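By way of example, we now present a protein record of this kind:
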Amino acid sequence: MSAVHRLGIALPGGHRPRPLCPCCPGLALDLGSSRTRAWISGRGVVLDAPTITFPDARIVHPVQRGAIVDVPATARMLDRLLGDHMPRRARPLVVVTTPVLHGPAHREQARAVVQVLRPRAVLTLPTARAVAHAADADPGRPLLVADIGARLSEVVLLAGGAVVDARSTALGTGDLVDADDSEELGDAVVAMITSMARQDRTALTATALKRGALLAGGGALLADLAPRLVAGLRAPVTAVPDPHTAALRGAAGLLRSAHAHPAVRATSRTSCGPMSG
């Protein structure tokens, strides 16, 4: 059976293979400061909406600078946006992307937020790894990923598929005075990568730079950002296809391997019986 069918990814021509487990669909979730996006196995992208909630008729942003600042409000938002998309008795396997440098506390908050969807298991995934997977990058070679979001920009060095080093800045496209001027963002990204290279006592960062950096996030849609990075780094920079949705697509693709995670297999024995594949 192909990986596409095993994942339950929607195919062209109206063909939609069923998820691996009918009572436990796969759900990929990307919680951003500006947008929340979700993908469900067998259905594709079901959500791309502003990350806001409305307590007492006020507009509240429960995720700020990539961090969940209000767990209950974020949970209510997910219930409002995704509750009707999940089958009544579904126990989804959830993969949620998280910034690398937000640490264990943020990952725990992400798991807590997703409990409103009654998940069978929740796995967190570094956003940079999701981007690399979406770009079909060779995991065996060092890779630099620059993820430029609305309120947070992060540069991550991957080697062997694992995070080796990372830098971040509380700056994104939403902070630009002129949406067409990426000078400040470009300088910040160049500074982070330059700092990483100077402090790297191995050849990993230099090797990754020779290969070229991957550019993702909504900032990659700025026409002048990639040229600025190329000039500042003197290295190739390539935007991934549809960079603003790359993290979600990568998380969706990695759901297949997530089904083999020990935490998932353990819960599958009690909630849904033996897992296929």
